[in-house]
């Protein structure tokens, strides 16, 4: 018991230290890996890929809680940082610090093979991310079932505006898919600024340039993210939205 209490105290101290120096972004809905709601919380869960060796994909964390979704279901994605003391309450209290880095481009993707390949099911530009809004994304109606929670992942990725940093955070999920002939979308997830993939740290995305609260999801993009645009056979195809990526 003493060992457990000591380990908990050390982790709490580490979380407090990091949260006092930065307030970047992770996702709390779906409840993702390495958050304070898991059995294996990490003090760098909200940091970018490459921070202190943080790995791609997903940060290299252990499996988190498992959430089950059905094809066609809309996920009200929520962002989180260490300023939020009660992740279950939404919206969070007013006036919390956000390191939004001027917004940027967010993608939401599915992997059925443990993170080797990713297919995009949602995109928001310029105003994303922001802890004060929900960012609805639909599980396409025609995806196949995914029954192995070790391999079935939902991911948020974010390319920031004011800094060449790439964020990638994942949740373990299960999907009850289409009964016959399910197919994944064609659009591949965008991956930039990952040194481990021999990429230069030279890419950012056009944002809203606001360091605090944004105007939230764009109305048109919100419609596209919830009406099948990103599904196999939908309008997104292999191109999707213009993420506004800029390379130095």
Q: Which consecutive residue ranges, at least 5 long each, have pLDDT under 50?
A: 1-22
Order of helices and strands: HEEEEEEEEEHE
Instruction: Work out the number of β strands.
Output: 10
Mean pLDDT: 90
Q: How would you sum up the major sheet?
A: 5 strands, mixed
Approximately how much helix is present in the residues? Answer: 10-25%
- Given the helix and strand composition, which structural class is it? alpha+beta
Radius of gyration over C-alpha positions, nearest whole angstrom: 17 Å
Protein name: Lytic polysaccharide monooxygenase
Signal peptide: 1-23
Organism: Linnemannia gamsii
Keywords: Signal
Outline of this structure?
It comes from Linnemannia gamsii. The protein is α+β, with helices and mostly antiparallel strands.
Structure characterization notes:
It contains 2 helices and 10 strands. By secondary structure, the protein is an alpha+beta fold. Strands 2-8-7-4-5 form a 5-stranded mixed sheet. This is Lytic polysaccharide monooxygenase. It comes from Linnemannia gamsii. Keywords: Signal.
Q: Topology of this structure?
A:
Blueprint: H1 2-21, E1 26-29, E2 66-70, E3 74-80, E4 104-111, E5 119-124, E6 134-138, E7 153-160, E8 166-176, E9 203-205, H2 219-224, E10 245-247
Parallel strand pairs: 2-8
Antiparallel strand pairs: 1-3, 3-6, 4-5, 4-7, 7-8, 9-10
């Amino acid at each position: 018991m003493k060992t457990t209490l000591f380990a908990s105290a050390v982790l709490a101290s580490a979380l407090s230290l990091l949260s006092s120096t930065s307030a970047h972004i992770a996702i709390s809905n779906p409840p993702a890996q390495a958050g304070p709601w898991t059995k294996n919380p990490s003090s760098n869960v909200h940091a970018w890929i490459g921070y202190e060796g943080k790995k791609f994909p997903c940060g290299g964390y252990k499996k988190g809680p498992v959430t089950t979704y059905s094809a066609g279901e809309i996920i009200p994605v929520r962002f989180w940082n260490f300023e939020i003391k009660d992740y279950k309450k939404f919206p969070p209290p007013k006036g919390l610090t956000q390191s939004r880095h001027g917004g940027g481009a967010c993608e939401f993707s599915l992997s059925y093979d443990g993170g080797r390949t990713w297919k995009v099911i949602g995109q928001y530009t310029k105003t994303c991310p922001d802890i004060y809004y929900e960012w609805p994304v639909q599980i396409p109606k025609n995806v196949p079932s995914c029954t192995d929670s070790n391999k079935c992942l939902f991911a948020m990725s974010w390319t920031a505006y004011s800094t060449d940093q790439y964020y990638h955070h994942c949740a373990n999920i299960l999907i009850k898919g289409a009964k016959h002939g399910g197919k994944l979308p064609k659009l591949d997830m965008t991956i930039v600024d990952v040194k481990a993939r021999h990429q230069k740290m030279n890419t950012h995305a056009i944002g809203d340039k606001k360091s605090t609260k944004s105007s939230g999801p764009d109305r048109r993009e919100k419609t596209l993210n919830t009406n099948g645009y990103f599904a196999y056979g939908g309008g997104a195809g292999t191109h999707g939205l213009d993420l506004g990526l800029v390379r130095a």
